[in-house]
Amino acid sequence: MQPFTYMRPTTAPDAVSAFASAGADARYIAGGTTLYDLMKLNIEQPRHLIDITAIAGLDKIETDGDRLRFEALAPMSAVATNDVIIRDYPVLAEALSKAASQQLRNMARVGGNLLQRTRCMYFRNGADGVYPCNKREPGSGCAALRGLDRGQAVFGTSDACTAVSPGDFPVALVAMDAQLEILGPAGSRTLPIGDLYRLPADTPHLEFTLAPGEMITAIVVPKTAAGRGSTYHKIRDRESYAFALASAAVALEMDGDQVSRAHIALGGVATKPWRAPEAELKLAGQRLTPEVALDAGRAAFSGASPGKYNGFKVELGARTVADALLIAAERSRS
Amino acid sequence: MTGSDDMPEDGKADTDNRTARSGFFTLSRRSALEGGAAIAAAAIFADASSPAKTATAAQSAPLPVASDQALTISATINGQPVAAEIDARTSLLDLLRERLALTGAKKGCDHGQCGACTVHVDGRRVASCLTLAAKIEGREVLTIEGLSDGAALHPMQQAFIDHDALQCGYCTPGQIMAAVACVAEGNATSKERIREYMSGNICRCGAYVGIVAAIEDAASKMERG
Fold first, then answer.
1. Domain segments of chain A: what residues?
2. Domain topology for B155-224
3. Which of A102, A119, A121 is most worth mutating to test chain B (most B CB atoms within 10 A of its CB)?
4. Among all residues of chain A, which has the CA nearest to that of B72?
5. DSSP 3-state assignment of B157?
6. Which of A35, A72, A173, A224 gives a 20 to 30 Å CA spacing to A112?
7. Contact A32 B115 (CB under 8 A)
8. Smallest Cβ distance to B132: which of A5, A32, A239?
């Protein structure tokens, strides 16, 4: 691991100034469950770490008023076990509690979780490994394109990269139209979460739209009646503690048996958290039967472009969406 | 941590027994490790009355560190104040094992995937391999060595013995630390919930049935206090 200096500012503005003084090779670190992990593989090589976890009062969870607001340093486990979130926004609580292990959820913070990097095995093979990776080393090539692509994405891929966006919580936040509060050298701004993520295109090493020195300070989710009728349905190779093969974040506003509005986003199948507007439109005004749910699932995957070994994700994903819709509808009735 | 009760003063008696049995001198890897750990433990706890000396007495000599990458941290580990100068790259796991001779927490994957390194920081379970040691500044760390009350095992330790909840034992300190937290979090209320909330701890021997039984058993005892 490359040596680095370590700073521990106690206010957010101090952290931003520290970043500006440190220069291009600086990184913010919160829980460190992704960054420190990738530093051990020499994939991330920061020369300066700015630990933001000593910033006081940046870990609040607010559920009053017309929105939910999670400050960036709230641990994943704290948001996942909040009683209001569990009761009124199960899609958010489940996306968090089905991610990682309790040890990692205690360490990882919700802000940093949005910036988790891919688990593509060719990427993680490491800087000292034998496989090329355009994300790790721009222009070196992509071993996954003609390699073992079972875990790779079927949406948003390019000739340069098919790596899956690994997160669960970001998928739920995309479904729920969350906004991010961001602080940086140029001041503060807000950003719809969908705009945080870039498609790989021919620059897969650029994953986020944050400018150098910007940090996420809070996540804001508008309150909606669809919250109670929501779920995060995650299908994995094993029952627990695994990344999604396919997942669906679903929230339904119902008018009796009819869907008035559906929120649907997909995980485990795309290069960024993937909203599914085709399926949402197909459901509007429909009575939700198992057949209608499966049709919507198939619509969500109509634009999929699988590779050699990941074609199963198309049918698995469609059925995951269908099952999630039925779970969400059941919850909206209770 | 092995207490002074069950370790010969200098390892000599153990060696003598082996000599008597086998007719020639042997020192197994295990007894060598136990001897080393006992010496290190003695260094830590013998100085407990003199906290200022504790850390320096217990530490192995660190490798040289460039001054701009060196940090001094102060924390409480198993109730003892510890201060150490570390390279900023150091993980909590390496600090515990390599500098403080607290080798209970194990290095399995070193990437947060196996749970063998689980310890508690401020009462919450974490993967010590993915925790920068710098982050424990001012915090309280509890490792498996600090779990028992003197010679009296923690109910979870006893339950792992009673239910044969291990074979090789390598994952066991991490399993036990995770399990104690699992109960404290209120997540040991059913076999299903225990399995879900213990999924971050891998047991390659496959002792899961015993582990779940041990946690159920210990949970009822811990809740009775």
1. 5-54, 225-333
2. DNA polymerase; domain 1 (1.10.150)
3. A102
4. A6
5. helix
6. A224
7. no
8. A32
Pairwise CA distance, residues A333 & A225, whole Å: 12
pLDDT of A167 reads: 97
Where do we find the tokens 């929105």?
A67
Is the pLDDT at A225 greater than 90? The verdict is yes
CB contact under 8 A, B197 and A102: yes
Q: Which of B72, B106, B126, B195 to mutate to test the interface with A (most CBs of A within 10 A)?
A: B126
What is d(CA B34, CA B30) in angstroms, rounded to the nearest whole number? 6
pLDDT for residue B174: 98
Q: Does B37 touch chain A (CB under 8 A)?
A: no
Q: Given pLDDT bands bounded at 50, 70 and 90, which one contains residue A281?
A: very high
Domains A5-54 and A225-333 share a fold: no
User: A123-151, pLDDT tens digit by residue?
Assistant: 999 777 789 999 999 999 999 999 999 99
A33·B196 Cβ contact <8 A: no
A225-333 falls under which CATH superfamily? CO dehydrogenase flavoprotein, C-terminal domain (3.30.390.50)
Determine contact: B4 vs chain A, CB below 8 A: no
What's the length of chain A? 334
As a CATH number, domain B50-115+124-143 is: 3.10.20.30
**Dist CA A237 CA A142 (whole Å):** 24
CATH fold of the domain at A5-54 = 3.30.43
**B62-80 residue pLDDT tens:** 677 888 889 999 999 999 9
Radius of gyration (C-alpha) of chain B in whole angstroms = 18
